Structure of Diaminopimelate epimerase:
Amino acid sequence: MQVAFNKMHGAGNDFIVLDERAGSLGLTPAMIARLADRHTGIGCDQLVLIAAPDHGSDDVRVRFFNPDGSESGACGNATRCVASLLAGQGAGPDFRIRTDGGLLAARVLEDGLIEVDMGRPGLDWRDIPLAREADTLHLPLLHDPAGCSMGNPHATFFDHPADPAAVGPLLEAAPLFAERANIGFARILSRERISLRVWERGTGLTLACGSGACAAVVNAVRRGVTERRVAVEMEGGVLGIEWTGDGRILMTGPAVISFTGLVELDDYR
Ligand SMILES: N[C@H](CCC[C@H](N)C(=O)O)C(=O)O
């Protein structure tokens, strides 16, 4: 079965976007892992499925999968990409996107950037989830990270001395995290600007992580080291993050189609 796909990226965080609105493609975790392989597949940080809306609703349902085949409740950069794709197909400019992490509102702005309301962060240890009760503002790990959920689990380190590529795999799988975690390495540049690298659960180091940027700002604000509106510099680009007065996280950034293609899915079964 030949299937059309879009290859997209948001600030260098790249995605295979497949459309299941006309029917299931029958993907398995093993097939997702093969499609995500950068040498023998299409290659991506996440595979994104646009699914048929639930019965009786107009919302689009979107699911996110990592290259190891695991599923995530949230992916900020891919959510912007889906909104941009739907806008290119004539919908919008306002969208409601249903994810496992919550119903998200997305909007194409006049300058072409996409804004997504990522909802409220989960600040309780059960939200992340942690394996045992702990203070999420000071997780019981070396170098004092803070944790929160953005629909997926995050921990943010400030000024961690080690190389993220070296410590990322160990921290992602630390027993404290009941479902593993995305690990952010932040540096405070000013009260309105931080730099961030993210070791993503099920993926590894990426050029940008939207939900990781949101989590880093939430944790920086909780620690009192930034304002509520912060530019987050990552290797692939800058995202604007704001934790609004009513507790919601707004994320603004780019979404780009790199190319469109056809894939013979049976070759990946
Ligand atoms: N790149 C994504 C996050 C993917 C999350 C995934 N790695 C997980 O939670 O398992 C983002 O822009 O938010």
Observations:
- Residues 186 and 196 are 4 Å apart (CA to CA).
- The chain has two domains: 2-116+255-268, 146-247.
- The longest helix spans residues 76-88.
- The chain has a mean pLDDT of 96.
